[in-house]
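Continuing from the previous page of notes. For each protein in this section, the sequence appears first, followed by its structure tokens. Read the first protein now.
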Amino acid sequence: MARKDEKNVEKGQEKKPKNTKYTRGIPVAYSNIKDKKLKSRIKKTESRFQDAAEKAEKLEMILPEEVGYLEAEGMEKTYNFRQEELAKNVDINTSKKIFNLDLKDFGPYSIDYTRNGRNLLIGGKKGHIAAFDWQTGKLGFELHVKETVRDVHWLHNETLLAAAQKKYVYIYDNRGLEIHRLKNHIEVNKLDFLPYHYLLASVGNAGYLKYQDTSTGQLVAEHRTKLGACHVMAQNPHNAVMHLGHGNGTVTLWSPSMTTPLVKMLCHKGPVQALAVDRGGNYMATSGLDGQLKIWDIRKYGVVQEYYTPTPASSLSISQMGLLAVGWGPHVSIWKDAFKTKQQSPYMVHHQPSSAVHDVHFVPYDDVLGLGHGKGISSMVVPGAGEPNYDSLEANVFQTKKQRQEMEVHSLLDKLQPHMITLDPTVVGKMDRASKDVISKERQEEYDEAHPKGPIQLRNKARGKNSSLKRFLRKKQHNVVDQRKLDAMAKLEKEKLIRVKRARGEVEEGEKPFTALDIFAGKKAKTN
């Protein structure tokens, strides 16, 4: 069967895979391609895709969990299900994940979860900061800084956190003690952290994007956006590129090694209110003050879908399984398969009475959505949102203190450098070999003019007679000997010329006649 399938692919026929879940589209018919190199490259690529799909299908058999979604019967719709009804029909552990924290005095609240989804960090705009294990209800710390808190964010794990306060950015530990005050980050509106690079990114009213290395304490980069104050920022988990939303409706993509944006996109007719990027780095969701919600394909920088929200969306979040949460006014809408096809109705909806939603975040590796609003914190169950099978080497949900310490050490040893952040992370580590078959005729002409003798041939390093030092000394010695020969020949020529003049009787005044005895005496004739 395998040989028959390979023949079908070579003839250009469509091969029907056993499981279309992991396939990457219809195989390319490369039998009619005349270019041999292109044909072989496509053939190898298709074989890799086929092997990857087969391995993923085999691996699926040993995965313990599967994704489960809400399913409605008959004419019923899934968006009609309320959290109260779900709490009555699920197990006790899942029902405990549906809760509300009434904190009316210090809102609206910004929230953030750790990478393993275990700990929750909240920050009220009026100065309230707290961190706790939201699954067990164990409080880590709680404090009031008595000034404005614009945003909060965890660092590499639950032991350190950053808070963007009225003027500076402060770093606290898991007991609420102030560790650092970052004076270079002034009037910050948004914070984000790159876990593989140990970089804390911030942007604020001054319009500067700054990267702070939390392992060494150095300010890695400081870029001026030249687009005014910025209130929207999100990172691309695939390549660690920062996406900034500006007041003129544009979204810019930044890396620490470039002082200008990598990409500049005009996304909305009004200021950008929120944006989010999916885990694969292929799609981006943006919302603007014009009431539009747009889905973008970052690979081609084009619009895929467009939606309209009655109130401009204030917050967006994309789950690990591709669900899109949109917070607009007191409402939250969750969309399923929003990046694939145009959706007519949402997957789930939630209403927070008399309280505008300020921040939404999906919990990693769990079917839970956290809401930060004007009256506190809320948590709702969204079936099918989280990744059911986690990698304990990446983010361990049940890690102990010892495992956390070991993971912290390994992550520091494997830390990536800031200059490795690029739009295409696959180019890192590759060699750019310019060949005559690839480069254009103009580049080939420029290369030939710059290298008239052909390409430089590298020689092996020699340690004996042909070493660079030996060659230099030999060349220098030869030059000295040649100069001595030239000087001696010049003297002989001058003496010969004087003898000829004296033989003709053309001896100048003041000169003594030259005789044969002068040669043996070693006397020098006068020369003017």
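Done with the first. The second protein uses the same format. Note its length before scrolling.
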Amino acid sequence: MRSAPSSSSDGYDLALKVLLAALAVGLPAGSIAWLSSNIAAWAAGTGPWVPYRPGDALLRPEQLWPAAGETSLLLTTRVIPVLLTLLLAVAAGLLWMRYKNRAGGSRKKTVAGMATARDIQPLLAKAVEAKARSLRPSLKNAKHIAPRDAGILVGNLAGTRHEVRMGFEDVAVAIMAPRSGKTTSLAIPSILAAPGPVLLTSNKAAGDAYTACFDARCQVGRVWSMDPQQIAHAERTMWWNPLADAKTLDGAGRLAGHFLAASVDASQQGDFWSKAGSNILAQLFLAAALDERPITDVMGWLAFPADRTPLDILRDHKFTAVASQLKGTVEGPPETRDGIYETARQYAAALLNQDIAAWVTPQSSVAEFRPADFVTSTDSLFLLSKDGGGGASALIAACADSVMRAATAQAERAGGRLDPPMLAILDEAANVCKISDLPDLYSHLGSRGIIPITILQSYRQGQKVWGDAGMDAMWSAATVKIIGSGIDDPDFADKLSRMVGDHDVETTSTSTSESGKSTSVSMRQERILPADAIRALHKGSALCLATGMRVAMLALRPWYAEPGSDELAAASARASKAITARAIAKQQPSQSDFDQAA
């Protein structure tokens, strides 16, 4: 507690302010009067150069320049000083307003108590570049490392020019609501700057990452597009064999697990029918893979449980225990068998669609996509599926999983890490890429040079797919967490608020009594970002939670605000128009349709 001696201090304060104001106005005016009068006297030859005396020049100019005329002194010591002082005051005011507005804009983006550049040093350019040299042997002796080769840009530290980057050993989870910049500020810039292969999953094409990045990625490698539900109406120029990794019971079980995850939520995957249906699929996938059959043959076996072909294949390849299990199900109680087989048929129903099945069955007219070759290239793989795509989204998840497993195997053969690293943008992961054990994969993908960025619309969306324990595990394993605007879950917002932490706030209180006025200063703690402030994060900003560092406020950098965006926008517009044209062409009746109608 500190007290003011009396109210007379207010008078001293007022006198001091008046004195300072007089100096602020009088000193410049007097200096201008002294300089202009000296120049006038020198030009007219009416006297010597007078030493610097601004007070006398303003108040008693006739004593300093007695030979000068009255009109001359009026101009040099009154008119000119007043005009120039006013001009200086206006210029100073404009500069102050400009500074205030700029500082105010920065303050809107920064919050007291948030991380400074020193707090997140490992995520800034110098540290990320040094780390990249140690992680990537190809860069060890490079004199200069381009930013794209050092790490993945996340944004700028709010209110500064410091770029914040993920390193090539980080794994990320981004929770951002629709239209909060998850595609424009995170997915697209990351894909455009990726130094190695890129995997993208999405449920949109026109005006999204697919169209924005297609031409740019074509310039660095081949672009593979898997579009079984014709979101982009892409021509089928590839096929992929989902049974290539199903020649072991574990591999077949993983493939069946993707069909299970695409069909039911995590809370329902443990019941009898779900597990039994998934087991039947795994056994039949294994048989088809061992006999090098297309995956569509499995649908024929599901339609006729009495068909002994899969049993014979399993026995011929020494999988007698699996054959016995399959035989037990087939010869079990009819009502149980029919229920199990019907469940399996529902999970794999998308394979009945010829247009979808064509993407995953052998054909000589198009190239086969091989994950093992892809992970050593600079190619791109765009996997597109609609929300709730059932079996179609299962194929998307299975393909993405196959690519990441191939990348892991290649990293082990290369000494532990991929160089260049592979970027996996799992946009709309909870809708179109439900990899059941993705939370477990997060614990080691970063150490293999495989950089996943899983983008979700909310924390609860992840809980629905992976369960509470699974989502918590992925959240904990992510070394970088990005939270954008639109967080409307009060529990999650409060959790984030607690993670951001508290800071000390100075509180000043003043009281007045008969003896005078007293002022006290105390400190109290309050949340740096309360839950309502997190919910109200404006578009273009995000929170960055990195392992072992304070939470930072970021200013996102959308691709359309970067250099070269005009060319990129034009390419995106062309790609979107091409999608529209292909869609219209499919809707128009062909000549054969007219012939049949006739």
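What the second structure shows: Residues 188 and 209 are 5 Å apart (CA to CA). The longest strand covers residues 502-513. We return to this in next week's lecture.
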